[in-house]
Amino acid sequence: MKFSSISLSSSANISMLASLLISISSRGGIGMTLTSAFTLQASNIAKRSVSSTVTTTATATTTATQWNLAAEGGGGGGSGGRTSNAVSDKDLLSKTTTNDGNGNGSDGKKKKKKQKQKKLETNPPKGTRDFYPEDMRQRTWLFDQWREVAKTYGFSEYDAPVLEAESLYTRKAGEEVTEQLYNFVDKGDRNVALRPEMTPSLARMVMAKKGGLGLPFKWFSIPQCWRYERMTRGRRREHYQWNMDIWGVEGVETEAELLAAMV
């Protein structure tokens, strides 16, 4: 089956995006400057104070038991007898304490256990970004231009889950590709990963139909992708890209059509 694909990342080379915007502007007469400035958003977090009152009580029960032991040559009187420690120790009450489980004794004092509250991280995870309303307006504008161009050339939009089976990528590139994946084992003991690209998902979707899709077809998507790679200027670990794919047509005409549409 003949398959042609081309993609353009929103976090890719700035000059390529500029060329795209110039091309789009020349078609529709729309002029806009796309900026890549992203700011941080902080949420007002209500701090909760935790207070605990620990009350300790100390109880001691002293039972005085005195008995006389017959001494050698002595009678049954108290002179030669033995007295229990519970009676003779006058400080028994102060020595008897209870513990409330928090390490506080029974001295009657109320102690508050200081708890260190972890500071809330207001920055997004490394390699990601927030989209405030002004940023969303610019992103939406760019995506709308991509969609308009794709539909002008007869492409239909599709999408797939951002979470895929890890084997979908290791079968193609080997186990070493996991070093560049956001992968983990879910609660069902399944190895999964955030998609680093869209082509494997598209191939899975086509195979799932088992030949039920009419050929040729022209599809496009604007997926969010994740790659755990070393970040450089203009390259993050989370990005969006514009994919255009043609299936079932042989010849270089398909590549020419894709390039004409995107550039």
- In terms of quaternary structure, the protein is single chain
Low-confidence segments, given as residue ranges, are: 12-80
Helix vs. strand class: alpha+beta
The succession of helices and strands, N to C, reads EHEEHHHEEHEEHEEEH
Strand content: 15-25%
- Please provide the count of β strands: 10
Report how far the terminal alpha carbons are from each other. Answer: 26 Å
Query: Level of helix content?
Result: 25-40%
Number of helices: 7
Give a short account of the largest sheet.
5 strands, mixed
Give the overall form: globular
Specify Rg, calculated over alpha carbons.
37 Å
Walk me through what this model shows.
The relative contact order is 0.20. It is built from seven helices and ten strands. Strands 1, 4, 8, 9 and 10 form a five-stranded mixed sheet that branches. It has a three-stranded antiparallel sheet with strand order 5-7-6, covered by helices on one side. With 263 residues, the chain is an alpha+beta fold.
